[in-house]
Structures are given as C-alpha cells and as structure tokens.
Amino acid sequence: MADLSTFWDSQGLSVTLYRPSVALTPGSPNTVIINPRGQLLDDQFQQRLTLWEHEAAAVGGFTHARAQLEIQPTEMDWWLQRLLGAHVEVTSGAGERVWEGFVDRLDVVVGGASITYGPLSAIMNRMRVIYQRIDTSTQPPTGYEQVMTDLAEDSASQAQFGIWKGYTTGGKLTTALAQNLRDTALAELAWPKFSQKITVGEAGSGAVSVALEMSGYYAYLLYPYESTTTGTQNVDTKIAAVLDADINGLFASTNAMLATNTLAVPAYDHERRAAWTVLKELVGYGDASANAYTLQVRADRQVIYEQVSDAVAYEFRIAAEAQEVLTSDQTRVELWQVRPGRWMRTSGMFVGRHDLGPSRQDVRYVYIEGLTFSAPDRLVVSGGDVDTLPAMLSRLGLINAR
Amino acid sequence: MATPLLTLTDGTVRVDLLRPPFHVRDVFRQARPLWKGGGAWRDSPLADGRSLASRRLTNITFEIPFVLNRGCDDSLWAEWAALLALLEKGVSYWTTWQQDEPVWLERRSGRETGIAYAIIKGFAIPDVDDPVHLSQTFRQRNISSSLYLELGIWQSEPPGEGHAIEISSRYTDLDSNTQGRAATTLPEVYVGNKHVMASLTDIYNWTSPGGPFSANLLGAALPFDIFPGGAAGPGNGDIMYFGIDTVTYADAGPFDSLVFDILTAATYGAGDFVTWEYWNGAWVNLTSLDWTAHPNGILDVSGPDTQPFVATGTGTVVWSPPSDWATVAVNGVTGYWVRAVVTEAAGITRAQQQNRDIYTIVNPFFEVDEAQIDGDYPALAQYMMRPRSDYLSSLEGYFNRIILGGRKMSRGAAFDAYLNLSDVQQPTGHTATLNGAGSCAWQSDPRAPTGRCIRYNPGGASAWSGEFDHSLSNALGPDYAGLFHGFLRYNRGAGGVSSDIQARFYTALGTGGYTFYDSGIIDVPSVATFAGLLAFGLLDLGVFRLPPGASVPQAGLTTTYLRIDLKSTGAYTADFYDFILMPADECFIDTRDPVTYFTGCQFGLTLGSLTVPRSTVELDQTLAWDSSSGAFYSPERWWRRWRVDAAVPLVLQTVADQRIWVLSHNLNTAAFTDIHAPPHLALEVNAEAADRYDVARGSR
Fold it and tell me: Is A351 near chain B, with CB under 8 Å?
C-alpha cells in the first residue's frame, strides 16, 4: 500500500468531512433542504487515510471514491454514527475542488467481525406502490387499472438522510394489499442496512479498519422525474426542468451552467424514470448537428452541461522517465488535476505520423470518458474517441445492429 | 595529477565529501547501470537459448561510507544539516515543480583527468552510528554512516549543460568543388528542406552603365568584393548576378538561397539600397528574406529592397522560387539567375566575402564527426535551430513542425533520405521511372526541388495503375538497410475532394518481383495555398523497413523499388516531387508547435535533452528579436515549449560519423490538417552534447 503520509501535504490537498444538516418541513408531502456542510467533522481527515482513490466521468462528473482509515475501537461508535451520509470534499491549496461526494457505504473490520453499513443510496424513505387495482365487487374480480398508492414517508429517516423516493411495483392487488405492501417496504427500506460477517479464530490488530465507499452527488439524482407538459422543449430547457424537480434542495437550474441546445425533445415524461436516467438520455441526444455533450456534477453540486471541445487538454509522455501529464502548452499537471470530458494525446509513440488531431483516425488521441486517480501517483484513464452516431441513433430511437 | 573530487553541489552550494569535516571510511562501491527488469527477452521452448528484445538502463547507485567529525556537537549537526539540505534539494527536483535546480555529484579519482557529473535522483542514509555524544569535554565528535546515492548516468558536464560540438554540412558542387560549411561550433551551418545537386556555377558583378562583367567570382581568391568597384564600393546601377548554368550542367536547376560570409560589411547612406530580382522574361522583383541585412542589432530583412551585407559573418538570402522563373543568358551563360541591383544615392561601401565561396543550401542534413562524441553511451544532444526562410509569413517559409532522424554513416554513406522524383539530379544508383500507364509525364516547374517533377494527369476517371517509382540499385541496397518513416511530397491541382485522387505505396524487389510494405490506400488531399505560393503537401506513407523482405542487408540482391499506384475519379491532377525516408531506428524525433503560429526567423528553437534534465527531450521556442522594432534580445526570451514526440532522448551515437536528417513543415490552418513542406525552408543550426560514461570518465 502506498504511503500517503507525505502525499497530501506535498500536494497541498486536504480532505474535509462534514455532517450534513437536513431541514425537514412536515407536510403532504414533507419537504427537505439538505445542507451538505452542516457540521464540520474533520478538516484534516486526510491525515487518517491510508488509501484514497476517486473516479470521475465525462457523464456524471465526480462519481465514486474509496478511502480507508484506521480508528481505535473506542472511536468506532462515534464514526459509525456519523460517517454514513457524511459530505466529503477534497480541495487543493488553490481552492480547486478535486472531488466531492458523500459516504454511501461503510465496511468496518474489527478483529474477526466485518460490518457493512449501507449503501445509503439504496434506501427509500418516500414510497408509493404501483399496482393493478382489483375490483372485488364483481365475480370474477375485474378491473386491473394501473394506479398508485398514496405516498408513505418515514420522516425520521428523511430528517437524517434526506428524501430518497422510490416506487415498488405490485401486481394485481386490492388497494388495501397495495398499501400494506407499501408500508412493509417503507419499513424495511427507509433506513440503511447493516450486514455482518463474523469469522471466529481470526486475529485482530487492535485497530479498527474502516473502508468508505463514496458516491458523487449525481447519486442523489435518483428521484423519479415526471412531467405532464405537452409539446417539445429544448434539451437544455428539459435538463433545467429535471434539475429543478430535485426533492432535496441539492440541485437547481440556477446552480448550473447549461449550454444552449435547441434540439427539440418531448417535454412529457411520465415513465417515473430516475432523473439521472432522463439526464443521461438527454446528454446522449447530442444536438441537431450530432455534436457530443457532457454533463458533470462538480463542486457544490453545480451541473455543467456543455459540448465536447475539440481542444486537446492534456498530453501524456509515455516514453518520459517522469511519466508526466502536461497541458497542451506543455505545463505539467498533477495527476489529480486531470479532468474527464477532455482530449488527451499520448506522445512518444507512433513518432513521425501526421498528427490528425482529436479524431478516430489518430490513435494517439483519447477522449477521457472516465478516470480513476489513486493517491499518490496513479491515474487510469479510459475512453476512446467521441462518437456522434450513438447520439443520432438515440434521437431517432434506433440501435446500431449487425 | 588531478586533485580527487567527490562533491555534491547544485552549482552554488558545495559539500566536498573528501575534505574535512568529511572523511571517507572505505572504498566507494558503484553499481553500474543495469537493464531495467533484466531486459526484455524473447524465448522459445523449441529453440536453444534466448535473445534480447529490448533494454533500457537503470539508474546507477553509489555507496559512500563516511565519517563526519567536528569538535563540538553543534557544528557537527550543522554540517550534517547542510548535507541533508542539499540531498533533499536534489530529490525535490524530481518530486516538485518549484524546485527547478538539479543537484549532482562530481567525481574524479586521484589519477584521473576528467570530472564526471551525475544528477541525483534519490538518496538513503539508512543508519547513523553513535549519533549521541554524552561527554561535555572536548573530544572529536563523529557521525559514521554510509550515503547511498541513486544517480543518473555519468556525464561530461553538469546536468543541464553540454559542450559545443562541431557540425558541418558540405557537398560537392557541379564543378566537383566542395561547398558548404566545414565543421564548426558556430551557428553557421545551414540545413534546407530538399536534397538536390544543382549548385551555383557562376557569380558575376557588373559595373554600370556599360559593364564589364567581372570574372566568375565562384572560386575566386578570398576575400573578394561582392560589389563591383573594389575598395570604392559600388555605384548606382551596379549589379551582382548569382546563377546556375543550365546548358553546361545536366544536373542544373533552380535554387532558393545564397549563403554569404561577410568579412567587410557594407554601409549605406540615405536612399541607398539593393533590389533582389529574378528573370521571368524581364527582370522583376524577387520577394526574399535577406538575413545579411541586420546591422547593429536592428533587422531589416523583408525584400526585394534591402541593405544586404551589413553584418559580418555568415548570412543568408532565401526565397521561394517563383512559378514564372525562366532561364536567361547573363554574360553568355544561360541558366537560372537572381541578381541584386544597386540603387545608390549617398554612397555604399564595399562588402567582401571571406572564408569560402558563396553557396546555395542544398543539404537537408548536418553531419557530426566521430571525434565529436565520446563516452560509453550515446551522448545527450541539443540543437539550436534558427529559421532563416521567413520573416513573418510572406514567404511561406515559417516552421511549426520539424522531424529529425539520425543515422550513422557506417550504415551506408550513400544513403540519401530525399529521393527526387525527377529525371535530373539523381545520384548514382537512383532512378525515377514513369511506368508507362500514360497518366504521368515529366513536368518542368522551377518551384520543384530539382525544377522537374512527375505530373499525374489522367484526363478523366482512371482505375488503379502503377504510375511511377524510384528505384535503388542493388549496390545501394546495404546503404538503405533500416527502418524508415516515409513521406511523399506533392501538390494537388485544383478541384475535387481529397479522395478524388488516391495513392498506394509499395516497396518491392525487382520489376516484377515481390511487393512487401503496402501503405494501403491514402487520399491525396488538396492543401490550401498560402500567400499565392505553391502548396507542397506531404503524404504520410507510414513506417517500413528496407531492403524489402531482407533482415540482413546484402549487396547484389536486386533493385529496390519505391512504387506509387494512383487512381482518380475524374480529370484531377497532382505533381509529385520526392520521397522522403526519415531514418527511424536510431534517434527519431517529431516536434511541433502546439498552437498555430508562424515561427519565422524572429524565433529560435532549442531542441534537446540537455537543458531540462528531468524531461526526456524538450523543444523551447525563444524570441530572438522584436518584429515591430527589429531590436534583438540578448539573451533570447523564452516564448513557449513545443510538443515533442520521441521514444528516446535526443542522442548522438558514440564515436560515429553520423548525419542528422531534417524534414520541416509548416501547417497553415488552425486545425493543423494542411501539411506543407516547402523545399526552401532553411534552418541555421549549431549543436551541443554531453558525453555519457559507464563508471568513470578517465581522460576522455
């Protein structure tokens, strides 16, 4: 395992941990405003970490992170109560947000016991059941009209974790049975789950190892998006509408930079799809000229929707001793500064070939669809070129087949 | 005998490990550079043994057992802190941006002449004996330990530095005389972007109004006056003529430059100037870049009207050969001529040529003699290159891509990277042939490197056919053994889209023999013209090995063919000028301006592996003078860094005569997709190197 003791200081990076505050206003339904920076838990959290790895994607922005730390057994209860859902910020000395998200799951190993807590993103504390209602007044029963139950909410869970809204699909049910199913599901899904694995006979080190699985705030875009508006609207207008439908006060079109995209898409959306699913579909449309777009959730939950640039942002010197990443003007970039949704060129291979620029014809160029940074000095970039065909097919409702 | 030396330094602070308070306890132990991972080997259970596929060197390690002693603990720890501070600085050079000064070890033994330098990459002092001294009485305080250094390879200069090496670029002219610049460390070597045989045959001056012409100044005793009038200087209307005789010499042709070496610089009064002209049926202005016209740190180079020969030393006049340049008889000699016409109002003083004949640039390479590079490993090199073919952009002679390929002369002195597609100016063993398909013909064009080229003009849609080739005789086969990145220079006529003419490149043995490398189908795109000049496109033919199919070079195989098939969808035309085979198996580097810019002669380019030790190879662009004021900068100002594609550092082979072949481009659109390679691009070059040694330098 790499020694991180000097990494954070030498790079001027800090990891700050907050306990979010959730302001819940009871009602029908409840409303919630989450403030991720509710209470500062630790502004030098990086000093505790023995592992740090984060991921970012061209569509998603800050997506996932993993960390590991060791705590004393006496601290275990304190951390267990506070870590799940905690807001995490990695910030450079210059104030640049390197990564941001929340703790989605904990894996605690203490001696021979392994405890998993979460994932938070799997809970549902606002629930409906969609079912086909049976009319029992006829012989045989008739009906089967698709309906939804009223909302059921767990206010205590929402007050701690915000609203995680979901639907459970029932079959042919009476209203009473559907409501019973809803309430049962709510009771079981409203809170993060614990699971344990106990191995008897395994020696422990005396310390407690905690592994954190973190998600970017895109994971809060799981609320079902519904719109009964008729007609069409521009892609960027619909993206704004999806963001404004957020039920936790984390996203808003006023905290977004949305490139104008006049491609007209249907405004109506009544399939109760997750907002993130709708957003990915809208990004996949591209624009009328089949240009590709990215959508990233970045610092302070700001959503950036923009056209993919042809500019080459990075150069990776594969044959260099130092294995450096440079900007296009040959300035060195720290590996944690590399961002997805940009073009990277590898130099030192295929020397002498005509440079065709960012394109599928020149293998030296890669469009960074996703990346994983592992502290202190490992970066894995995945990607290819920017295809516009999927956007075009997506818009036409077609698939590419052989 | 020299004083032994073992010193850590950053160039300012020095910690001498052989002087008190340091005492070396024992002999040093040095681990030679090994092969990373033991090298990459190829092996087979069906074969005996195994073979080495590739290797790269590790750092070297150096163990120095030492004792540090002082009379009191405070001064002891102060010395210890100084040592550690320097070592920490050395490793910080690799781990941080802001610490940009390397630290190195200087080493010379007591009976050794030369000092060797190795950059520090890491260190360890694993333990320290008796670091705590309890006694308060005076007693020698000691720290006993071993310093383990991880070092780069030993060099002849401190990291970041090199020594000037001599380079040259000479050729045999049409009269079998040697022209060009002999080996020098000075920035007086000129490299072009074509390889031709046409050289100056005649230089005359003519005294106004009635003559006479001077005798031929080519080969005249040095120094000689360039202007007529001798010590009195020229008079109004006097003319200097520079030409190539196209009647007497079969390998004559147009030319695009003149190189002077001025002993006595001319001075000009108010209203005095010289006009450069060429013949197109009449004498007309020649747009040129006159680098001989920069006195007193002020540049005035954009012709036709200039004040040439005002700076002492070497200087060039470069132009793009005009499309209507025609031969004419001057002093009874018919050929391609340019002339400089004097307009004198106040009084122009004499200008004298020294050291060598005035010549034209014909070589796209410079040479390094085997005596220039010593050591056990290829030397790190650095080339200082200054564009000389464009001021701003009027000549299409600017640079933003330069490819270099090194090749040892021992692999074949007859190797020529530039293979003209011409029925003239072919060295022995080279033949360009039209294959009789009827769509190609020889074409005269003064803009072509040799003045002749192959014109593809199918007159309508034409299926694939073998149109032309350049063959290398069987005797040349061994000289061409190696790996090459091939290019084909061309100009596409008007009309159509890129794919309306397509090409396919083959290497082949024998006329009806086997074909080997096949480039596949390549579109021949139109390249946007610039400033009304001819657009010299460059097709990328890919990487291939010669001789075709032969892993061991042998004389007497058979003729090697570089062959082009063409296809057209309609009545489109293209002219083809030369194949360019850049050597890709010794040191092959492709550099490029990362953004669109006209890198003309106001810039300097420093390419190499010396200046920035932590970088494999860099190209830094500097601003030599202000184009608005004409004022020179000294030192030149850093402008920006080019992108460098290189799998290896920029190196020169040890104790070997070698040629560094150069292919320069300019790219005239923001997207960099239009590749231009005008033949008249010219660079002025000088070089530095740092030799590299295994465990010691000795007297080298």
Answer: yes
Listed residue (A306, A308, A292, A312) closest to A387, CA to CA: A292
Cα B541 from Cα B554, distance rounded (Å)? 25
For residue range B479-510, list pLDDT tens digits in order. 998 989 999 999 998 889 989 999 999 988 87
Q: Does B221 share its domain with B147? A: no
Domain annotation covers residue B247: yes
Interface residue B543 vs chain A (CB under 8 A): yes
Instruction: Look at residue B566 and tell me if it is in a domain.
Output: yes
Distance from CA of A388 to the nearest CA of B (A): 20
CB-CB under 8 Å, B640 with A351: no
Mark whether B12 and B68 lie in a shared domain.
yes
Q: Which amino acid is at B493?
A: G
Are residues B595 and A320, on separate chains, in Cβ contact within 8 Å?
Answer: no
Same domain as B626, residue B516: yes
Range of B83's domain?
5-152
Whether B429 is covered by a domain: the verdict is yes
pLDDT of residue B152: 94
What integer is the mean pLDDT of B100-105? 95
Q: Which of B353, B379, B403 is the last residue of a domain?
A: B353
Give the residue on A whose Cα is nearest the Cα of B152.
A321
pLDDT score, position B396: 79
A328-351, pLDDT tens digit by residue? 777 888 899 999 999 999 998 889
Whether B145 and B24 map to the same domain: the answer is: yes
Cis geometry, peptide bond prior to residue A26 (ω within 30 degrees of 0): no
Assess if residue B178 is contained within a domain: no
Provide the residue count of chain A. Answer: 402
Closest to A341 measured CA to CA, from A308, A378, A312: A308
B235 and B207 in contact (C-beta within 8 Å)?
yes
B594 and A320 within 8 Å at the Cβ level: the answer is no
Provide the 8-state DSSP code for A362: -
pTM score: 0.85
How large a percentage of chain A has pLDDT more than 70? 93
Three-class secondary structure of residue B582 per DSSP: strand
Q: Report angle CA B134, B139, B144 to the nearest 5 degrees.
A: 75
Q: What number is the ipTM of this complex?
A: 0.70
In order, the DSSP letters of A81-126 are: HHHTT-EEEEE-TTS-EEEEEEEEEEEEEETTEEEEE--GGG--SE
Is the per-residue pLDDT at B525 higher than 70?
A: yes
Count of domains in chain B?
A: 3
Check residue A71 and give left, alpha or beta (phi > 0: left; psi -120 to 50: alpha). beta
Beta strands A325-327 and B440-444: pairing type? unpaired
pLDDT tens for each residue of B271-303: 999 999 999 999 999 988 888 987 544 555 666
**CB contact, 8 Å: A94 with chain B?**
no
